[in-house]
Write a structure and sequence with these properties.
Layout (H helix, E strand, L loop, with lengths): L1 H39 L20 H4 L16 H8 L13 H14 L18 H10 L6 H16 L7 H19 L39 H6 L1
Helix pairs in contact: 6-7
Protein name: Transmembrane protein
Keywords: Membrane, Transmembrane, Transmembrane helix
Organism: Neospora caninum (strain Liverpool)
Length: 237
């Protein structure tokens, strides 16, 4: 009788162990989902009744929803991130930024950050690319509507070379002529409102013209006799 009861007790023990493990996983998932429930409902004490009263103000959303500081992703491996990253270095075809795991992408991002290839340039190298880039010119035109920042860009180039790189003669002869040309255009634009292309390199895309546009053409050329037409008459006279 005892020998027959032993396997039954063992099966009951295994069943209880499986039930305990499943209950633990359900409990962990319940704790995980309860964290989301905390983000979508206020915490109320069920034992104390809450007296209802009429609303006297608008209740803002931050008093109804209280989200956590960040979305909690599930950690199925039950290991810290540093341990997952360390063990992935010894997995097959995965080392630092070589491989196709998430650790490879993270290591590649870390390497890019460490290499400083995308850092902004120092001031002594601003004129090498940034001050001549289309992005800088578009941003300069966008943040200075109706103005002409070309002269200021030339002065910034001079400053980067003279003050930060230490060049005593920062401008070549062509750059000096370009600076003087921009200075002349700046003076004309500030002095004469609405001045356009024939005098400066500027064109307006919205120009108001009168309803009746008078076009003054040049007078027609008077017809002159050809020099061969009256040559015979000249001989008779």
């Amino acid at each position: 009788m005892a020998s027959a009861a032993f396997p039954a007790a063992a099966s009951r023990a295994r069943a209880s162990a499986v039930f305990a493990s499943s209950f633990a996983s359900v409990g962990s998932s319940a704790r995980f989902f309860s964290s989301f429930l905390r983000a979508s409902r206020p915490r109320l004490n069920a034992t104390t009744p809450v007296a209802t009263k009429a609303l006297e103000r608008n209740v803002p959303m931050k008093e109804i929803l209280q989200p956590l500081w960040v979305i909690e992703p599930p950690n199925f491996l039950r290991q810290p991130v540093w341990k997952q990253f360390w063990e992935a270095q010894f997995a097959n075809r995965s080392f630092f930024f070589f491989g196709n795991a998430w650790t490879s992408a993270a290591a590649f991002a870390l390497f890019i950050w460490w290499s400083r290839v995308f850092d902004p340039p120092p001031k002594e190298r601003l004129d090498r690319y940034w001050l001549n880039s289309p992005k800088f010119r578009i941003l300069s035109a966008f943040h200075n509507p109706g103005k002409r920042p070309g002269l200021k860009i030339s002065l910034m180039t001079y400053e980067a070379r003279y003050c930060y790189r230490g060049l005593d003669h920062p401008f070549t002869l062509n750059e000096v002529k370009d600076f003087l040309f921009k200075l002349r255009e700046q003076y004309l634009v500030n002095k004469y409102e609405g001045i356009q292309f024939p005098f400066v390199f500027r064109q307006f895309n919205r120009v108001s013209t009168p309803g009746t546009l008078e076009v003054h053409t040049a007078p027609a050329l008077q017809q002159q006799p050809h020099f061969h037409e009256h040559s015979g008459d000249a001989e008779h006279h």
